[in-house]
Amino acid sequence: MIPAPAFLSNPERFMAFSRWAAPLLGLIATGLAVAGLWLGFAAPEDYQQGDTVRVMFIHVPAAWMGMFVYVCLGGASFLALVFRHALADAAALAAAPLGAAFTALALITGSLWGRPMWGTWWVWDARLTSVLVMFLFYLAYMALRGALDDEAKAARAGAILALVGLVNLPVVHFSVNWWNTLHQGATVMAKGGPKMAAVFLTPLLLMGLAYMAAFGALWLVRIRGEVWRRRAEAALSRLARA
Amino acid sequence: MLDFDTGKYAVYVWPAYGVTLLVFVVMIAASLNHSRRWRRRAEELKAGPERDAAE
């Protein structure tokens, strides 16, 4: 049996696989989101947060995805840098705007939750600041890729930058343990299990899975776009030579 | 029973959902447009020389 990354490293096989996998993941994401939102709005108010608890169902998955997509960006960049694999580079390039969008969502929805709960839109605590740094890494990666005309050089420089940014991920995750932050500590991935009632945990996990499936669908679509772009540019350079 | 009445927090809850919806719509539209645009371009470029050769 061929391992999944090796199977998908062939562009032809990837295009055949993603053609049906992307819409399937999109359908799964829609179903999970409908179920998650249904349960989220059927849940009672939280005794401390009141109705702002409903922001958690969209904020926390966005924050998870911001980190998860960065792991994908870093992993794909590593494969592109070490093995010079064109599809890995396409995957890295395709992941960045999606990761930036999820991180921006986490920052905006977090701010909309923070104002009524903390009394402030923003505070320079370790969690919020490290997430902002992650967002800036996404923007820097995209800016760097767009700034260099030589695609091979841009891919190499972008991959190095993406790998440097991986250092920030443990800071994002453990910031609430390492420093005294206004942001609450781990709730779902806490030691000894989730510190959250099932009535809130179930819609939160469903929404987390919905965001994950949505990312999977959109990532595949964007990688397909990158493959088409590279084919078009290869055809153009063949025509220019002829 | 669904409860869409978010009371005094409506001013925070609904903009959060609105921004989320907007970002998802933009992500989906941008990803599909990017893919379709380059697919069309690649197919045009591939069809050009084949057409010329056939003529």
Overall description:
The complex is a heterodimer of chains A (242) and B (55). Chain A has helices at 4-8, 11-42, 53-83, 86-118, 126-147, 151-165, 168-178, 198-241. By secondary structure, chain A is mostly helical. Chain A is globular and about 70 Å long. Chain B is 82% helix and 0% strand. Chain B has one helix at 10-54. Chain B contains 1 helix and no strands. Chain B has 55 residues and is mainly alpha-helical.
Give keywords.
A: 242 residues; mainly alpha; 80% helix; 0% strand; B: mainly alpha; 1 helix; 82% helix
| Global outline of chain A | globular
Largest sheet of chain B: none
User: How many β strands of chain A by DSSP?
Assistant: 0
Determine the strand fraction of chain B and express it as a percent band: under 5%
Poorly predicted runs of 5 or more residues of chain B: none
Distance between the termini of chain A: 42 Å
Q: Please identify the oligomeric state.
A: heterodimer
Overall residue-averaged pLDDT value of chain A: 92
Spatial shape of chain B? rod-shaped
Task: Please outline the helices and strands.
The complex is a heterodimer of chains A (242) and B (55).
Chain A: H1 4-8, H2 11-42, H3 53-83, H4 86-118, H5 126-147, H6 151-165, H7 168-178, H8 198-241
Chain B: H1 10-54
Summarize the structure.
Chain A has 242 residues and is an all-alpha fold. Chain A contains eight helices and no strands.
